[in-house]
Amino acid sequence: MKFKKIFLTATLAAAAMGLSAQEVVMVEESETVYRPNWYVQGQFGFQETLGETTFGKLMAPNAQIAVGRNFNSVVGLRLAVNSWRSKAAITVDERYCWKWNYIAPMLDVTFDITNLIGGFDPNRLCSFGVFAGVGANIAWDNGEAVHVNEMLKPSMGGANALRNIWDGTKVRMAGRMGVNLDFNVAKNVQIGFEAQANFLNDDYNSKLAHNADWYFNFLAGVKYTFGGNSKKVAKMVAAPVVPCEPQIVEKIVEKVVEVPVAVPAQEQVKAEALRRDVLFSISKTNIADNQLYKVKEVIEYLKANPSATVTVTGYADKGTGSKALNLRLAEQRSKVVAKAICDGGISANRVITKSMGDDMYQPYIDPIQNRVAICVAE
Question: Could you give the CA distance from residue 58 to residue 50 in angstroms, rounded to a whole number?
C-alpha cells in the first residue's frame, strides 16, 4: 500500500461545541420622543350670549391671548385672557338690546385626546383636545342696560324692569369648558379652532332668571411652540451577529510506506470562507467606529488569500422608510463598505457589491440588525 487517506470533517455539532463563536456588538438607535414645551397663542372670533331673542342678535366680536405649558403629550396648563363684548336683550325689539365690555383671565387644564388614545406621533397632521378652567370676569360700561331699565320703569310702576341691573365695574367668578382642533403646519406652528362654553352667576346680563348666565365663544388662531414638541434621543441596543456557517473541509494526508522520497512542499489547503456583518444605525450609511474592525478582518483575509474575492450585500430594514429609499440605503451601505475594503489595499476587481433593499428576504428577525452590509469572502 502506497498511500493512506485520512478524511477530517468539521460538523455542525462541533461548531455548537465551540468551533464557531457568536459575537455581540452594540449599535446606536435613535427614537423620537415627546418634548415638554411652552407656547403662546393668539385667537380671534365671535361670541354669542344666551338670551331671549333670535340667534345672531346677540353676536359680538371676541379675542383671546394665551400662554401655556404642555407637561407631557396629554396634559397641559394654559393661562388665557379672553375679552371684548357681551350682549343681552329683553325682547326682539332693537330698542331693548344692550351691550357691555369685559375681560376674563382664565386658568385652563388641557387634555390632548388624540395622544391619549393613539399615542404621540410627531408627524400627525391634526389633534383633538378638551379643556376646562376657572377664572374671573371683569365687566364694565353697562350704561346701555341702565338706559333700557330707565325706559321700562314707567311701565313697571317705577320699579326696576331689569331686576339684576348693575353699573360701574363688576368682578365675578366664571367657569368654562370647551374643545379644540389643531392642525400642524410646521414644527413650531399650529393653526387651531376652539369652541368655549362660559358660565357665570345670574346677574351678568342684568336680568333675573334664577339660573346661570352663559356665553359661547368661537375662535380661530395661531399657536407657536418654543422648540417644537418632539426631540430625538439616542440609545444603545445589543445586536447579535449571526456567525458564519461552518465549512466542511476535506484534508488529505499522505504517508510514505515503502519508497523513501523527498517530502514535497506543503499542499495548499483552501481557507474557510469569512463572513462579517457591518451594522449601521437607522437611515445611516457611514461605518460606525465600533464596526471598523470587521472591515479590517475582511481586508486581512483577502491579503492572506490572494485568489479570494468578497461579495458585499447591502440591506435595509423594511419596517421603516419607503421601498425606494431602502433600496438606495442598501446600495450606499454596500458601496461604502466596498470602498473601505479597496482603501485597505484590495483591488477593486476582487470586490463585488449587491443591494437587496428591503426585499422579502431579510437576513435577521430583529429589524435593527437588517440595517447591514454582509461581507462574504471566499
Answer: 8
Mean pLDDT along residues 180-203: 94
* Backbone torsions φ then ψ of 264, nearest 5 degrees: -65, 165
Cα distance between residue 81 and residue 147, in whole Å: 29
* φ and ψ of 318, to 5 deg: -75, -5
pLDDT digits (tens, 9 = 90+) for 245-286: 445 444 545 554 555 555 454 445 567 899 999 999 988 999
Order of strands, sheet of 274-279, starting from the edge strand that comes earlier in the sequence: 274-279, 372-377, 310-314, 351-355
Which of 172, 164, 174 is CA-nearest to residue 217?
Answer: 174
* Length of the chain measured in residues: 378
Domains recognised in the chain with CATH numbers = 12-31+232-377 (3.30.1330.60), 36-228 (2.40.160.20)
Residue keyed to cell 346677540: 58
Cell of 248: 466542511
Q: With 0.70 as the threshold, say if the pTM is over it.
A: no
The grid cell for 122 is: 410627531
Does residue 37 contact residue 227 with C-beta atoms inside 8 Å?
yes
3-state secondary structure at position 152:
helix
Describe the crossing of helices 292-304 and 323-343 by its angle, rounded to 10 degrees. Answer: 50
**317 three-class SS:** coil
Per DSSP, what are the bridge partners of residue 174?
A: 135
pLDDT score for 260? 54
101 pLDDT above the threshold of 60:
yes
Residue 175 pLDDT > 90, yes or no? yes
Q: CA 224 to CA 220: how far, in whole Å? A: 14
Determine how many CB atoms are found less than 10 A away from the CB of residue 33: 11
Average pLDDT over residues 195-208: 93
Does 14 score more than 60 pLDDT? no
